[in-house]
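Quick one: Extra-cytoplasmic solute receptor from Cupriavidus taiwanensis, structure tokens please.
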Amino acid sequence: MQADRRKALHWLGAGSLAAAASTLGLGLARAQQAWPARPVRLVVPYPPGGATDVLARALGDPLGKLWQRPVIVENRPGVGGMIGADVVAKAQPDGYTLLLALPSLVQTPYMVAKPPFDPLRDLTAIGQLCTSSLVLTGSSAMPRTLPQMVALAKSHPDKFSYGTYGIGTGAHLYMQVFLKGAGAELVHVPYKGEAPIATDLIGGQISLGTLSPMTVRQHARTGKLQPLAVTGNTRAPMLPEVPTFQELGYKGLDGPAWLGLFTTAGTPQSIVDKISADVETVMAAPDIRQRLGDLGLIVKTTQPAAFAATTRADQAYWGNVIKENNIRLD
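--- reply ---
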């Protein structure tokens, strides 16, 4: 009798646990189906006004309308984007905190002694939004083609200089790959932003600079700047006459820079998939494509698994470049 009673209590307890688990699972599923139930925060780890910030706001407004919840863009710049990314890495894994990032996300951790997070472990890829390219540009006094420029630089080591957005930026890393492949030596002049690079390049204070297609097109029309080559695997739509580095025989610069969306690791896959699908819908709108195209950005969306593979490959590739060139931020 006693044994039967214990057995009955055991099954009753097991049934209660199963019912509780079922209720919890149902509640979680309903919560995910109802997502978002409150405002969503979109962290931009760069200052206001740049292309990344413009993209975030161009994306946030229609997403907010689609979700019927505000998408709040929050700029958290610093340390190559790591401050803003760390905010998202340490947020609750519920999809309410998103990150709009560049390849610096997987590059910068290699340049500091103690990175606060691991981008592949602590963040989940939602999807690529678009790609961009950089243009190696010469002053009006420099040769008109890249082969001529390389020949001149080789004959006068360290006589010529090039400007980038700063030490450890994507522009700096691309130039390290290019100079190693070209066998040329140039003096690196780091700047804070693109405008002073263009100003000094036009004024002849530096020989070469890495600039966006939009800036180059503006000044190339007047002959003040000479575009020599673009990064990526296709020519920039704004500068269709300018060859890629790949076309000119220089390897390792064919990977276009991406702008992509992430959230906190551990976020339910159903929420990640929903955000990804809704973002693709928004990015397909002709007005957004036109607006971003005017900034030199090419809309090219990918789904979570494909974007995760891209970030893994980029982390491995740029990690090697950074180690080989001993690039440090601390």
